[in-house]
Structure formats: structure tokens, C-alpha cells
Please model this.
Amino acid sequence: MTLLYILAFVLLCIALNQLFRVFELSRDLRGEQLYKTHDSDNRFNGRGMLLFMFAFFAFFLWQIDSYYYRILPKSASEHGYKIDALLNANYALVVLVFFVVNGFLFFFAWKYHGTKDRKAEYILHNNKLEMLWTTVPAIALAFIIIFGLKYWNEIMKRNNDPNPLKIELYAKQFDWTARYAGKDDQFGIDDYMQINGGNPVGLDTNDIRCNDDILVKNEFHLPVNKEIVFSFRSRDIIHSAFMPHFRAQMNCVPGQITSFRFKPVITTAEMRKDPHVQRNINEINAIRAKKGEDPIEFDYLVLCNKICGASHYNMQMKIVVESEADYNAWLAKQKTFKAIAQK
Amino acid sequence: MEHHTHAAVIEGHNLHDHAHAHDHHEHHQTFVQKYVFSMDHKVISRQFLITAVVMAVLAMVMSIIFRLQLAWPGEKFAFIETLMGKKWGKDGILDPNAYLALITIHGTIMVFFVLTGGLSGTFANLLIPYQIGARDMASGFLNMLSYWFFFASSIVMVSSLFIEDGPASAGWTIYPPLSALPEAIPGSKLGMTMWLISMALFVVSSLLGGLNYIITIINLRTKGMKMTRLPLTMWALLITAILGVLSFPVLFSAVLLLIFDRSMGTSFYLSDIYIGGRPMEQVGGSPILFEHLFWFLGHPEVYIVLLPALGITSEIIATNSRKPIFGYRAMIGSMLAIGFLSFIVWGHHMFMTGMNPFLGSVFVFTTLLIAIPSAVKAFNYITTLWKGNIQYTPAMLFSIGLVSSFITGGVTGIILADSTLDITIHDTYFVVAHFHIVMGLSAIFGMFAGVYHWFPKMFLRMMNKKLGYLHFWVTFIGAYGVFFPQHFLGMAGVPRRYYTNSNFPLFDNQIDINEFCTYMAIFAAFGQTIFLINFFYSIFRGEKAPQNPWNSNTLEWTSPMAHVHGNWPGALPEVHRWPYDYSKPGHEHDFVPQTVPLGPDEHDGGEH
Model:
């Protein structure tokens, strides 16, 4: 059988070879230069460019129409509204530039397709035009830079709320631990040399401030409308805490403490009622139903967003935003470091 | 070593003056001297190109495999087990570590081996001596070494695919500590060592090549070839080489320190790490240092990849619009500005590392400045088409494709450069879409354009035009089809480098976008087989190339359509004008080669 395949393949090669020979012979005999572009080629490809433009633009608009509800829902954090406003302004600008500049390109590519009876115009440059397309982008960019930096400084500013809630997110391959400061509202210092099964995040057992620190896994809770200062640590390699619904992200770097702060303004329960979110979740549940899986409800997540190994794609933790009272009740049920260590 | 270099330079000098003496030499060359360890720029450029084509096919096959995984996670594809073996593709399902290895090596090969070594190596070697009117490179010997270091580097990289623990898999940016700790990921064992060795060899190759390109362009220009008469390809390759010479040594130092950290117990990048059930002794280093060093190369690298492609298309668009390039001086100025700025923007890759927000602001500012010269370039291309008489060769199609992807991918850069906005889209598929379109597609389109355009100078034959058209349209539609929808994944918050995007419910419904991208990737890959058939068939059996198939002005088309040692059999051509006198009034043809003397009242276009 294998022999037959080989034989068939060899015969095919010979046949193709003969076919090409005939083609080459006739090409050389007729002496026509196949590489030359004729007016018909120019017309064909010129039209192709115009057609492509329409198809491309239509494809883009179709995607916007079909996917807009899948993009991140309204921001669940206060500063996120600024980011979204700026993002939308930027999208509007770049989409406009995308249409106009690509439009000119494809339109000219069609309009000026070559013909034998025409000669191109000898145009070297045009100072007015060049000034125009240097200064217009420069002015547009000035606005982008000014607003971008204004918001950047506001978001990264260090003292918004004099009395924020402190939470530490601790990353390791491949899970997250959240740490609350406990009753004394102070984190104890850490020491990676002391890491072991009873001390998973490497707290210094000699520091009594650590004793009331609360450590939680799998999910952690946030009170709504309260400024939260996150600090981030990593045990092994660089991870990144990405909380897309809160428009928050920060790398977790071993040997360093990084931070980010935001104020959640929409509880999980409220976000689940958002029509945008509901449409998305309904779609997901329809897919899950087909596969015979249970329906899900919307949840905020922290995802790992820096390549960290085999289970990188699965390194996540649930975030629950709730009223201050619910949050306090939840927190009271969690174990302190001391309780964990004594086990 | 120094002695050899010296001798080679002298030899280059001799070549310049005594071509005839060297014609005589040629008869004594053995096969090995002529085709293997050749010092002839034409042979070396072909060696670079063929190596790059092989590497590109490898990287493309990898991308198809991981795209299958992204579209149909958990689905069994029997050929994956056949290809990758039981360990990495058990039952035809890709292993998560193998997935990371594939994306890492795909990125490394595409960025370094295809679009740096392949693109610059091929076209700098082919075009520099031809377009400036030189017999060869300043040092043929260093040039030969440059290729063979590149070859050795490729061999090491490809061999790392076959070792037990698999190749490097920490992403092409190989951030430590992931890349430094063998306990963290299997790819950081021997695979990473080989990656680092391969890169060290690559840097050597790049430096030898780059120094040679700079020296040649500055010193060996023929009579009359003023800097303002250089084709834009030369300007682009010159600036590229300067960027490479200034930035690659920094990558080398980053790699070297990582080698120390991995094997000699130093702690440049390591601190406070607990892994594999024990704390490590290393304290005091910073992984962020590596990121600074890496991106100090990494960002200029983007332009090392892009500028040659922009240079190639400048030349092709002017030739095939039958019109002078619009704003020749502005084109040079914008390339210089891009080259300069590319050195002070690296921090925009690191907004989320916890760097000082003020430092972040500085990088926002410098990065957004790059948009200005980039916009100037895009507008100049478009205005070159305006009122032109466009000849649609396959090279011209790819050049227009480049301008489009440069615009489409460029505008999203404005969003990513803004640190405020980067908070929500950093490391998502939005980034993947952005850099694949602006850097990947643009550079590869430029490379294709260059291959179609200069194939006759390389192989003395023509490629098939109709297959070229088919290749372009399939590639153009397929490539946009793969990457454009990924913007929407990114806007939904889907992180990049995830083995599957639908393992947890949040992104379950995005699977249709992933399927679409994969179908398009397979479609585009089909387009590349058309290219490969056309390419290899035409090398041996394509129609014979005429002297100046595209009616072009530059010097390479005045040298005979034969591989002459020393490029021109007699005296070197003399240059009298800039290269863009297309459709100039008062001339019979719509092109005026650079060797035609200026008329009595004629001005040189480059002087404006």
C-alpha cells in the first residue's frame, strides 16, 4: 500500500514536471514577458484595493455591532470612569484616523491605477501639506498627552483617603492569597526565609503585628465605596494582578512591594443586574447548557496577567464587593494568621 | 582576529580599485568558497534569505498548532502527537508547557531570526553594495562571519526544540525570575541555556553585520553618490544598523547577567524567592533591572524590524507609482527622528511594573512623540500614490499592504502608549493585535515586497506574477482576519499568553472569535505555501530576468544580470542625480536612471 502511494507520488511529480516544461517552452517560444504588468492587471488590483476597503470597513463595523456588549462592562471602580472616558475619546479619535487615512490609501490605490496612455505627475513635495500633517497630529497628540497625564497623576496619587482599607495580594505559582491587616490595622513585616506550610505568605513570626493579620484564599471581599490600597508581593516570579472590571493592574515582583489604589463603587449584586453583563452571561450560559454544564453568575476576578508557567491561564481569585455590613460580617468569620499558624 | 579584519578591509579596498585583478581570482574559487563560506555579498544575502525562509516556515507551523489549541481547547488533533511526541502532545492535545514553549519560540524566531536577521541580513547585503555602487561590502570576511554566526545561532535555537525538557518557554521577552529558575517551568532548564547561547551568537552576528553596513554606506559610495542621492532603502538600512550597533550590546549584557544568575549564583535579577520548597539565598537583585536592559534593546528592536521594511517600500512605491517619493527629505528626517526617539521610549513596556509614575509620564510623552514622524511617513506614502500611474507588481501590492497595516496598527499604539489607558489593556490581546499588525505584518509585508522586487537581482529570474497576486490577496485578507478581531478580545479583558481563554467561564463566549482567527490563520498559511512554491520554483525555472524589469532608477539595475564578482565588469557607475526622477517632464521615458547626467538647466530632485 505504501509502495502504491510512493509510486503515485512519483508519477504525479513526473506529470507536474512535464506540465511545467510545456508551460515554460511555450512561454519561451512566444517570448512574452509574463512578469510585465498590463493595464488589465492594474485595473484588477486597483479595484481589488477599493473592494478590500469596503469589505474591511464593513467587517470592522460588523464586529463593533456584534461584540460591543462583550467588552468590559462599565467600570466598577471610581477612577475607572476617568479611564473609560479617556479610552472612549481615544477610540473615537483613532477610529476616525483609521477610516480616513486607510480610506485615502485605498482610494488613491484604486483611482491612480496605471494605464499606458497616462504619465504620473512629477511632484516632489509640498510645504503647506507637510506643515498641515505635522501640526495636526502634534496638536491632537498634545491633547492626548495632557489628558492622559492628568488622569495618570490623579490615579497614581498616593494620598486620596487618609484612612483607606489596606489589603495585600500575595502571588505564587499558581494562586493568590489576600491579606487583611486585622484589628490593629497594621501589616506585620514579612520574611521569605520563614515560609512554610503554616506560614504560606512568609510573615515574620517575631512581629506581633502579624498575629491578627487575616489570610484568605479562593475569594476575598471588599466593602463598597471605600478607598482600598492594595499592596502586591510575589513569592517566586513576576505575576501581575489584573482586575479588569476595576480597571486596575499591577505587577507582583519578588523582592519588591508594589501598590495600586481604587474605590469600588458597584457591588457584585448590582453588577449582575447590569444589562450589558446579563447579555454576556446569558450567552455564556447558553454555551454551557449545550455542553451540559451548570449556569454561572457574574463575578469580579483578579487574573494573573504576566506569564508565570504551566497554569498561568488558571491563576485567578474571585472578588466580592458588598455593603460594609456584609463585608464586616464576612471578615469576622475569617482566620487570623495566628489561628492558621497554630494549627 | 584583528589581523584578519585588517586584511579583509584591505581586500575590500583592493576590490574597489582593481576589479580586474579579482575577476582573475574568481576562477580559482572552489565550490565551498563560492557557495558556502562565500565573502560575496550576493551569496551571503541569499544565504540569509533562505535561512530566514526556513525559520519562518517553522514559526508559522508553530503558530498554527497553538492557534488550534486556542480555538478548540481539549480537541484531539492526531498530527500534534505525531509532530510533538507523546510528552508534549499526548493524545493530540497540546501540553500547557508546550503551548508556552511554542509561543516563546514563535516570537523569538519571528522577531530575531526572520525580521531582524532575515530582513536586514538579506536586503542590507544585497542592496548596499549594489545601490551605492560598490564592488562589495567593506569587509567581506566579517560579512561572511556575520552570516555563519547567524547560522550557528539558528542551529542552536532549532536544536533546543528537540531536547528532553523542551525549549525556552518564558515568552520571547524571557523575564526573570521565570527564565532564571528551572524549578518554575521546564523550559527554564537546558532550553533556556540554549536560548541564551543562541542569542549571544545572534548578537555577534548582528554586530558584525551592522558595523559592516554602516562603514560600507559611509565609505564606499561611488562617485557622485552624495548622502542626499541615496535611495531611501540605504537611509533605512543605515539607521537600522546604527540602532542595532547601539542596542544589541545591551541585550548581550542582559543575557550575560542572566547566565550568571542561572549558573553562578549571582543575584542581579533575583531577590527574596521561595521556590521548589526552599528559600533561595540570592537577595538584593531586581527583576525590573532585566526589563530595563531588555527593553533598551527591545524597543529599538521594533524599529530595527520596521525601518528596513519602510525603506524597501519607499523605493518600491516610488518606482511603481512612477513618481518621485513625496517629501524625500522629510522621509529621511522622520526616519532619523524615529531612530532617535526609539531609544528613549522603552519604559512604555513597563508602566505596570510599579515604576515611579513620574518616570512613566516621561515615557508617555516620548512615546507619543513617535506618532508624529510616523504619521509624516504614512502621509508621504499616500501622497506618493496621489496622481501616480500605479503599476501593480506583487511587490507594489505588498507595499500598499504595509502602509495599511502601519496605519491600522499604528493608531492603536496611541492608546497603548498612554499609561492611563495601559492600566486596563496592558498584556491583553489588544497588545497582541497591535504589535502583530504594526510590526509583524508591516515588516513581513515589506520583506515580501523586497523579495518580489529584487528576486531578479538575487536569482536572475522572475517570480510568477499571477501567483504573486494570489499570494498577496490571500495573505492580506488572512492576516487582517487573524489579528483584527483580537482587539475585541483585548477590550473584553482577555489576557495574552493564556493556554486557553475558556477554561473558566468569564470568557467562554469569546470562543467564536478564537475560532475565526484560527480559520483565518490556516487560510493565510495556505497563502504562504503559494509563495513557497513560487519562490523555489522560480529560483530554478522562473523566466529569465531582463536587465531592468521594473524600469527603476537605482544603480543595481545597471549592473549586468549575471553574478559578476565585483558587481560591475568595468568601471563603477557614476551617479549624477537622485534616485527618484520618475515621470520627470522633459525626458522621453518615465524614468531617468541615476547614471544619466543632469541636463544644462536641470535640478537634482534630492536638493529640494
The radius of gyration of chain A is 31 Å. DSSP finds eight helices and ten strands in chain A. The first strand of chain A starts at residue 165 and ends at 172. Residues 49 and 106 of chain A are 6 Å apart (CA to CA).
